[in-house]
Amino acid sequence: MKIVRNIMVFATVALTVGILYVLVTTGEAASDDVVTIRFGHGSAETNERHTAVLHFKELVEERSGGKMEVLVYPNEQLGSEAEMIESVTFNDLQMVAASAFSQYDPRIGIFELPYLFDSNEEAWNTLDGPIGQKVAEPFLEDNLRILAYFENGFRHVTSNVPIESPDDLKGIKIRTPEIPVFIQTFKAFGASPTPMAFGELYMALQQGTVDAQENPIANTYASKFQEVQDYLNMTAHQYMPLPVAISEEFWQSLTLEQQEVIESSAKETAQFHRDLITENENKMIEDLKDAGMTVIEPDKEAFRAKSESVYEIYRGKFGDELIDTILEAVQ
Q: What pLDDT shows up at residue 33?
């Protein structure tokens, strides 16, 4: 169901002005002869996500023979993930790689149900198949065409106390994304979820505003959370894809050949990103240990049992058919 946008008009105008300011001050104005794609994401330049978006840029520019250019804006330069997605809906920004799509259709949160997938391959096959396409379709109503699913990967908790079972999360203030399924999952575990923008997280951990956070290994590593957290708890509580969307209005302004260049490059880059993350993850864990983090292997079955209540919530929201379809596909 298409939701009503709840941001105020002046906020949208301010964000648009901010984007234009970045473009003007960086001297990256569009050429009359070249199609320019402005692509925003929220991760640091040291993150594999940025490497992947640069790979996409290289593919598009090469395959178009220089007739298309991709300008990349990492590290929330153009606003939070939610704000960048909003900018794409207004066609102020052409592309975004982000996680906060549930504000437009909550059914995309089905992929983030706790302990849904047991392996990366299960997740990839589901995302690249009919279910991934079905979940993407409603976003066209909001001018968002999901081209591919990049990798966020399995998420794990970092903290300053060891987390070996859900009981250890009781009373813990843990930062989560502003996504309902995350909030409900950690409520089910007994924690106190505290949503906030990713860009605010390091300082919040440093100042004790929150006690813990949960993210894929790559995000924890790139953001240097080992400087402000002592334990890496391998909960693997959720898998999270990273949808890559393009403005449908912009998409329809392109030729079929240009659309093919962008779509094929996005799908190829999705697998590039997935492989990059999985290849580097073990080394990242070792580096985090060398930096002083203690790695904990918790009782995942205890967490899995606690998460059953989340499925009941989402059966009420999404209906049994969608939940059962994805469970059957995974099994």
A: 87
Query: Encoding tokens for residue 69?
Result: 């250019």
Q: What is the mean pLDDT of the chain?
A: 91
CB-CB contact of 153 with 269 (8 Å): no
Rounded Cα–Cα distance for residues 84 and 89 (Å): 9
Dihedral pair phi/psi, residue 99, rounded to 5°: -110, -15
Domain 9-330, what architecture? 3-Layer(aba) Sandwich (3.40)
Write the single-letter amino acid at 208. G
Domain ranges of the chain: 9-330
Closest CA to 118 of 237, 217, 271: 237
- Give CA–CA dist 215/218, Å, rounded: 8
End-to-end CA distance of the chain, in Å?
Answer: 28
The CB-side HSE value for 83 (13 A sphere, CA atoms) comes to 21
| Predicted structure pTM score | 0.81
Over the stretch 160-193, which tens digit does the pLDDT of each residue have?
999 999 999 999 999 998 888 999 999 999 999 9
List the alpha helices (DSSP H) in the chain.
9-25, 48-63, 81-89, 120-127, 130-136, 180-189, 201-207, 217-222, 248-252, 256-290, 300-306, 308-318, 320-330
Count the Cβ atoms, other than its own, within 10 Å of residue 208. 10
Cα 240 to Cα 179: distance, rounded to the nearest angstrom: 11
DSSP-assigned letters across all residues of 286-317: HHHHHTTPEEE---HHHHHHHTHHHHHHHHHH
DSSP character at residue 52 = H
